[in-house]
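Hello forum,

I keep getting stuck at the same step: I have a sequence, I want structure tokens, and every attempt I make locally crashes halfway through. Rather than fight my setup again tonight, could one of you with a working pipeline run this one for me? It's a single chain of 41 residues.
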Amino acid sequence: MEDNTTHEFVEKLHERQEKDKDNKERQSKGHQGYKLPNKQH
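Reply #2:
Ran it on my machine without issues. Output:
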């Protein structure tokens, strides 16, 4: 039972790390293509 819980925790942790990494890449200045243009009215 504990092994399964630990495994699930690690899976979720890895998913979170992947999402964080993707978000950082999108928000960084090195990837302008991902950014939406700011609309100024």
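The chain has one helix and no strands. If your local run keeps crashing, start a new thread with the error log.
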